[in-house]
Amino acid sequence: MAAFHTTDELDPGQRLLVRIDVNAPIEDGEVQSTRRFERHAESIRELLDAGHALAIMAHQGRPGRDTFTGLEQHAFILSDLVGEEIEYVPSTFGEEAVEAIADLEPNPDAASAGAEDAAGDADTTGEAILLENVRMTDGELPEEPPEVKAQTEFVRTLAKAFDGYVNDGYSVAHRSHASIVGFPEVMDSYAGPVMADEYEYNTSVERREFDGDVTMVLGGTKAEDVIAAMDHLEDTVDTFLLGGVVGELFLRARGHPVGHDLEDGPDLYDENYEKNEDLIADVLDRFGDRIETPVDLAYEDENGERAEHAVVDVEEKTVSYMDIGHETVEAYRPIVEDSAAVLVKGALGVFEDERFSYGTVEVLRAAGESDAFCVVGGGDTARTVPMYDLDPAGFDHLSIAGGAYLQALTGEGLVGVDALERAAERMDG
Question: What architecture does CATH give domain 203-398?
């Protein structure tokens, strides 16, 4: 486990500045997914039941994009999920925010009231507000060293108003932004429940010992990410099962006429392959038969229906492949079922389209119904589980992290975790 302090160590009734990640897809100005909200609502509920007063920070989108909005609707969603009003404050560290923070009332006696009573009685819990989108704040962006972020007016203004800082946003822990790395430089700092949980599971495969084979399912579009993960876990993983764009690129390296761009298709393959051709060849040479590639691929026929080609029958790529085929699933299924641990990073096809969800869904189903220790993550891949009614109880962990999850798999440190560890050293010293 990382050497950081967690919120379990806090005395009741503290004033806390809390960073979460409820960044969500937005269409027509409306939030389209509450998956991250649901996880963080549990953390907020737990902190409120301990009588803490919370000023919550989060972001939505990036400047210049359509998804870059204020957080008023985010406050409504969180309030509904937490079961208690979380007031939206359209400021981060301006006068309005400072006044709202000053009005927050912790309740040190909340814990003695009991969690069951506290959950239904506002008088026995702390209070919470949600500050405006931190990426609208001077000093939050761009990425800079923690010591630089610690000197921003944003950090200097808010730090003195709280007893401690809580980072519950593992999924943004790879970003060196003020709300992630600045506050831990100058405040007592703690990992929230989501942060601690995500860190534990997303680094678990290389830290644990398993009585049997470890299998890694790798999909998505970026060959360099897949190769970095394979390199880092070379001594841990026994078998790599490939799909998606990456699966086609590896098939191309094995001499099959796939993994190419089409004139009327997306530019996903040629540049990707040219940039990584030597790396792919090296990995195939070193790992040999530990790497399983698709034996058939699915595409959309002239009637708009799913159809499949056996890879050995493809003489020239003339269609866009959207999923691994049924024979590939049947080849992958027993490998997954017989594994002691399964780690999933990336989808094996365009699972958002039900016609091409089969590969991702059925491999996940096999993992979830097996006895294997199973962690699923990598962008939106974990979304497949609720989208296709797979039983979440079959998986040990469904990560809400994308970039941070990938960095954990490739062995890169996370600046947000490093910041919490430095804070712990300072606090202990």
Answer: 3-Layer(aba) Sandwich (3.40)
